[in-house]
Write a structure and sequence with these properties.
Helix content is 21%, strand content 30%. It is of the alpha+beta class. The longest helix is centred in the middle third of the chain and has 18 residues, at 46-63.
């Protein structure tokens, strides 16, 4: 059975999708933008944006009953691959060893013209 996860400590879904769904112990987290849930504003700079996104993911994983240690895969979407090294510096702060598997790709455009979006998959 599929359960919708709704976390008030992360930005709400802005379309016909869930922040996350949990089924059979698998948590699928939709792509998160660098939005502050309190203000709705986008963080400025790739380091702050990466941090905000990962805080949002952390809140969703926590709401589902897990922690960042439960995250086994992430997808990172960057508008500019030149931001890769700076994103990585912040990204590694959120995960213990072994870190999750990951794909990072450069894309031409993201919702709200965000420069970065990250999705995640966790086993709870």
């Amino acid at each position: 059975m599929k359960k919708q996860i709704v976390c008030k400590n992360a930005p709400p879904a802005v379309g016909p999708y869930s922040q996350a769904t949990l089924t059979n112990g698998m948590l699928f987290i939709s792509g998160q933008l660098p939005l502050d849930v309190r203000t709705g504003e986008m963080a400025v700079g790739i380091a702050a944006q990466t941090r905000q996104i990962l805080e949002n993911i952390k809140a969703i994983v926590t709401e589902a009953g897990g922690s960042m240690d439960n995250v086994v895969r992430c997808g990172v979407f960057l508008q500019d691959m030149n931001d890769f090294a700076e994103m990585n510096e912040v990204y590694k702060e959120f995960f213990n060893d072994p870190p999750p598997a990951r794909t990072t790709v450069e894309v031409c455009r993201l919702p709200k013209d965000a420069p970065i979006e990250i999705d995640a998959f966790a086993i709870i």
